[in-house]
C-alpha cells in the first residue's frame, strides 16, 4: 500500500529530455499504488528508464469515462494514484478532464505535480508577447474547417498557440496566409528539449518560402503574434457591432462573437447585449 494519502496526482513528465523529470514527480510515481497513462507500453518504458516499478493502467480518449467508477473505488479503498500523459502535462490536449471533474465532484483530492509543458516551453523562448496568450489546442485537419477556426481568431490581440502535425504545416501556413495575411509573425517550435530542437521564426510568407520542399519531423508548437492593429476587429465600436449582431443572434451568441472580434470581455459584452436587446 502506498505511503501517499488517497488522491489523484496529476504528474507532468518529460516532453523529450529525460533530465527534465522533477524530483517530486519521480517520488510520486515511485510511491503511488497505480499509475494511469495513455499507453502502458510507452509509459512502461519511461518508468523503466527512471528505475520505477508500478502498476500501470490505461486511461485514454476511448475508455476514460469507463475508468471513472474504478478510480473512485480505488480512492474510496484508500489507494493513491498518479495520472500521466505520453509526454508533458496531463489534460493539456490530452485525456483526463472527465476524470478530474468527476473526482472533484465526489470530493476527492486532485493534486498537481507541475513540470514540463510544450506550450509553456515553446512560449518562453519564442520571442512573442506572453502577457496574454490563448492556447487553442490542435487545429482541424481539413483546410475548410481550419480556415473557419483561423478566421474567428484573426482579430484576436493575444498571442495564439496551437499544436500541429508536421505533415500539415505547409497546408496550415497557406491557410494562415489567407486568413491572417502574409506578414503576421509566426514561430514554429519543434522537437522541444530534444537533440534537434529548432525554432523557426519569421512572417507567414517567410516560413512558406523557407520551408518549401522541406519535410519537418516531430510534433510542432505553432505560435502567432496577435493582431496589433489599433482597429482590432472591424473598426466598429462595441455597441454598433452588438446591435448588428443582435439582429440575427441571441445576446449570448452575439456577445461571444463580439468578444472574438474585439478582444473585449465576453461577460461585459453580454451584459451590454442584454441591455441593448431589452431596448429593442
Which features would summarize this protein structure in a list?
280 residues, five-stranded parallel β-sheet
Strand content: 15-25%
The biggest beta sheet is recorded as: 5 strands, parallel
β-strand number: 10
Please give the count of helices: 11
* Helix share, percent: 40-55%
Which class do the helix and strand fractions yield? alpha/beta
H/E series, N to C? EHEHEHEHEHEHEHEEHEHHH
The mean pLDDT is 92
Task: State the low-pLDDT regions, or none.
Answer: 231-235
Radius of gyration: 22 Å
- Placed side by side, the strands forming the largest sheet appear as 3-2-4-1-5
Instruction: Report the end-to-end length measured between terminal Cα atoms.
Output: 65 Å
> Shape from CA axes?
globular
Verbal overview:
The chain has eleven helices and ten strands. It has 280 residues and is an alpha/beta fold. The strands form two sheets. It has a five-stranded parallel β-sheet, sandwiched between helices. Helix 3 packs parallel to helix 4 (97-105) and helix 6 crosses helix 7 (169-180). The longest helix has 14 residues, at 266-279.
